[in-house]
Amino acid sequence: MTATAPVDEEKASSRHPVPPLNHKSPWPSLLSFAYSWKMINVARRKVLDKEDLPQVAGSDEAARIGAWMEDAWREECARSDKPNVLRMFVRKFCWWFICLAALQLCEVAAYIGVALIVGELLGGLSDPTASLGYLMTCASTLLLLGLLLNITHHHVFHEGFHFGMRLRVAAMSLAYNKVLRLSLRALTDVSAGQIMNMFSSDFYRMEYGGPFFQFVATSPIHLLVVLVIVYQKIGPASLIGISLLVLLLPAQMVFSSLFVRFRRRTVAEADRRVRTMGELISGIRVLKLYSWEEPLAERVAHVRNREIRALRRSMNLKAVNLWCEFLSSAVIVSITFTVYVLMGNTLTPALIFSTYSLFLPLQLTLTLFFPYAVEFLSELYVATQRLTALLTQSERSTHKRHGIANGNGCTSVPSTDSSDDTQIDTPTPTHHHAIDIHNMTASWEPKTGPVLKSVSLSVKQGELLVIAGPVGGGKTSLLMTILGELEPQAGGVCVREGDGMALVEQEPFIAPVTILENILFGKPADQALVDAAIHASALATDLASMPSHVHTQVGERGVTLSGGQKARVAMARAIYAAAITRKQRQQQQQQGGIVVLLDDPLSAVDANVARHLVAEALLGALADTTRILVTHQVSVVAQMCPQGRLVVLNDGCVVHDGVLGDVAHMPHLLMRGDVVRESEKEAQLEEIHLHEISLDDMADNEDDGNNNSSEQQKPAYEHSCSVLKDTNEEGQEEASKGAIIEAETRQTGTVSWGVFRTYASHMGPWWVICVMCLLAVGAQVMLILSGAYLSQWSQLDNEQQTQPATIGHYWLLVLFLLIFSVSRAHLFFALCLRASQSLHNTVFAKLLSAPMRWFEANPTGRILNRFSKDVSLMDDMVPYTGLDVMQCSLRVLGTVVFVCVVNPVVVVPLIPLAAVCVWLRRVYLRSSRELRRLDGVARSPLYSQLTTTLHGLATLRAFELHDDSRCQFEATQDMHNSAYWTYKQVERWFGFRLDVVVSVFQAITAIGAVAMRQLAVRGREEGTWLGGLEKMAADPGLLGLGLVYIIQMASLFQWTARQSAELTNFMTSVERIIEYARLPQERQVTPAEEQTTLTRAKKTLPHPSPWPSDGVVAFNDVVLRYRDHMPTALKGVSFSLRPREKIGIVGRSGAGKTSLIAALFRLSEIEGGSVTIDGVDSRSLRLRTLRSSISIIPQSPVIFAGSLRANLDPFNEHSDDAVWGALKAVQLEGVANKLTGGLMASLTEAGDNFSVGEKQLVCLARALLRETRILVLDEATANVDTHTDFLIQHALRNHPHFQKCVVLTIAHRLSTVIDADRVLVMDRGAVVEFDSPAELLRRGDGDGYFRRLVDRTGMGERLRVLACEAERKRAGEGEGEGQGRV
């Protein structure tokens, strides 16, 4: 279960039956990476799947590294008042660094040995007296040193990537463990988007730097050794070249500081973009209903443009690094030997190319690897600073775990916020008290004042405490303080030691798994207890109507459940947790119970179900449990438990502490001071609301209305829970039938050329791409020509070498090389950034236009993975790797062509070597592609679990599932690391073998040159035809240049091949992004077609007016189906409304009420019929035109991060006075005035600084500002308290604007629509009745569907009176528009 289920080690191991690839491998296999062949061979036979992946080694397991890092962080905190993650990493990973540096120095020694042997070989070839044995020894030594160089080089990078992976795992484990401990207050300072971006970007940048960090230490040593050797060869002239290389170091320092600055800006903008994207995806339904895609898209585009600007600066720095790396060797060698010649010295091939061979690896180190090290160290610094900021945030109070038990078995609450020096006065517990609160004051934000003020109360063990009060009174804050989520500023809380916690939130946390898993919530299954929990929470009827009963998947955040169902699933979870805990402790003969905190679950259900929950849950299944219930349905609880305890909170203070029977004498205490009833009728409606049965929870079978609750539900819950017995394929098949979330798609095979073509098409016009390609080819040609000229220069006599024309021609070639290289690098990066921005904008636009059914099938974490990790790779790695591949490929190709021209004898052995390389690349690509895709797919669950954890943090911690969540995250990390590390091992296998091929090619070239020379000398001495081979023997200068290029190619060739494969793998991220460009789209209409339709409609009106003028909605034989395999949700629905008419829509759950909204707003396209508004078919309108002409107040309010004003008027279409007027009309003016900044006050993500009721009133204010002719209320009062319901109904009945609207109210309770003009009764997707409430109530018992619904509410007579009063009022006002004539 995502974010909740514990990970059983035995099951985890069964998912990874393959041992690590290098497990028990002999040392030759370890040296040559031959153990990787096992995975490559599997990939040759089949498409790899996660079951084929091996286990990670024990030392690499996330659990082990995480525990090690937690101990290290505690040690760091004890060492310093200002702990720092970077300092901790240095202390704990220093041995890795030292070992990598030592191995790197061995590679440096091999490089120097190769350079010296090249000098000896060229000197021998130029010396006629050199013996064959000496030359062959030089050639053989060159081969052996090449093999040693290959071994050291690949093991440096292998262990470096291993080091990087461990750094990333350590950082992720630290961060996730901290997230599990973060206080809710801290989450206002560190947003979910920032945390997500740290996981998707920062920690992976740590990993990429693993193989390069040690170059900071080894580069100076390498420089010093080369300086000594070169000085011995060419004297003071060497100081010029070395000085130029050294001068690159401070330049790199400047680049590094600039890169850190640009990286910080890029990361900050990426944080904002990911946070905005997360909000957008989470609230996409409301976004579409409001037609707010454009302002949110503009916000994302604005942040994206700023991100691209920061990226452009860093890319220009990277371009400078790359062309410096490409040019520096040629330029430095040119300057060095020019000075050497001008000093009166003579150049020789041996001198030039042995020195050149020493400069090349040094140049590569100082201009590539050292800058990489500085760059990644800079990013490591930035990442560790951000991680340190996270780790030093305040944590949730852990008094239950870490307090000191006193004699009464009660534990006091110490403060854990190091930033707060306020002394907490902890209470002295009383015997038998489960909770003691003494003089407690608490605040979410110090600037906003306390939300709880000097609160003191005690809760006895097993007591039922009901907490009531007006909206914003501090009820939820009190529960959060008991949980430890809100730290007291003064006073304290004491919770009895050994007691567990269970929480039912006001907005219940529902994990994206099955209903059964949501109820079990990581605890062992017990069929009898699950049965009891389902019965007590009144879920049986709902489960009976679901496709797979308890195995039905609920989608992300319970998207497929209604508000009442979510509340009851959360209730069942708490009941089951209490029951299983009680059973386990009885078996273990342990003391202690569980405290159940319920934050207003009764507001989401009707009075009958509320009574059932009170009787069967609070007073039944939870009777022996300490219960604290926050509710606005006080009268429901008071009727069934009048002697229960009642505490009233108002403005953060306890204003009443008595019994529930007192509720009738203190209604003024339960209301906000600004709430005023204006009529006796509204008071009657409120009273009926408290006692009425809602429609969603009536029994499905009308004939069984007289049966008691348990008898109705028994068959359903027995059937639903019997599936607990199914542990085989049958149970899995049941679960698959109820699956809502689709499996993530994964491409197989090679990345198609179509992906590269699509990417190139977004880079710009084709002629610009051609210019860039010509610049790339020209740069390589200039490089080869300058090297060839240098070799010819070395064979001139001393006088010719010093001539100005000779030197000038050489420098002219170097100048052209400089121009081509610089232009190529900057133009390529500019084109790639253009492609990245264009692709992002295109795909984002497609995402916004995707239908709702697609969002319901794809979790937020999966979508964010595409727009965080995949976009990050497309932005950063694809351009850099792409230019590197192009640059290196041209160098390899140029080297091979040059060597073949200079020494034609190598052409024959080159053919089989090339065939071997082609075969190696083919088998490597087949495995690496699949491993890379598995890596991408295995990465998504990390983000999905992180998103789920952040969303349900309070609930997870209340149920003490943070350890289980950590285990699940560690198992997910291990799966991801398995794919990643297997890929890296296969990569080393491939690179090592390519370098061996190049070493063989190098030896063949050297041995071939020696053999040709020796045969030519013998033929000349003997006067045979072999003497003619002297003409074919390679020129020593050109041969030296060829050997230098081959030495360079020894690492360059495998690097190019691996980088090309890496580019292909990175292009899988581009492929995944482009995949979203093919998302299914909502049906669109062109502006011209819409204008033609509206012009035609206006001609039929008697007087000119904008559309819609009256808001007359008509459904004509509408048929709607959500998915092809699902039954129809609407079956030939037809009805027509009148101008200004108030319509109630009623029906039980599944009747088709919400489907009417889907059809009206075109959230789902209808299969047949039509929906018209003022005579215009909605399908002939653009979606923005249609949706912006209708206002809606949804069941679950959605608030976006940003200002209060932006949440009310995102298009900035209204004045501040109009916005204030809307807030005043919904009685939120006082709340807004208390916010810092008023209208411009910043709201947190999801509007957490507002209560649920206040958020719903914000939605009502939105509807007022939109001033549309149609208003839809989608069970808008289902999840709010009585008083917020009263405020909404008051505004709807009395505000002038709403009186002019056509209002469609989907009723949660019949009292909401009993005074409507007409009521539309739905059942099983069809219209059953449609008339005024009074007329529907006059129908006979056998014909009156609405009448039977009213009778079954328990308040039938009073509802009839209200319906008749409404009818008389309409008749008295006169018949006409909006009066709903009966």
Automatic annotation (TrEMBL):
Citing just one GO molecular function, the answer is: ATP binding
Known SUPFAM superfamilies for this protein? ABC transporter transmembrane region, P-loop containing nucleoside triphosphate hydrolases
Q: Where is this region: Disordered?
A: 1-20, 398-432, 696-718
Which intervals carry biased composition (Acidic residues)? 696-705
Which Pfam families would you find in this protein's record? Answer: ABC_membrane, ABC_tran
Q: Which ranges does the record mark as transmembrane?
A: 93-119, 131-151, 212-231, 237-260, 322-343, 349-370, 766-790, 810-833, 896-921
Q: Which UniProt keywords apply?
A: ATP-binding, Membrane, Nucleotide-binding, Transmembrane, Transmembrane helix, Transport
ABC transmembrane type-1 domain span: 97-378, 767-1065
Coarse class of the primary localization is: membrane
Kindly give the SMART domains that the UniProt entry links to this protein: AAA
Membrane topology classification: Multi-pass membrane protein
CDD domains in UniProt: ABC_6TM_ABCC_D1, ABCC_MRP_domain2
Positions of the ABC transporter domain? 435-676, 1113-1349
The Swiss-Prot or TrEMBL record describes its family as follows: Belongs to the ABC transporter superfamily. ABCC family. Conjugate transporter (TC 3.A.1.208) subfamily.
- Write the protein's name: P-loop containing nucleoside triphosphate hydrolase protein
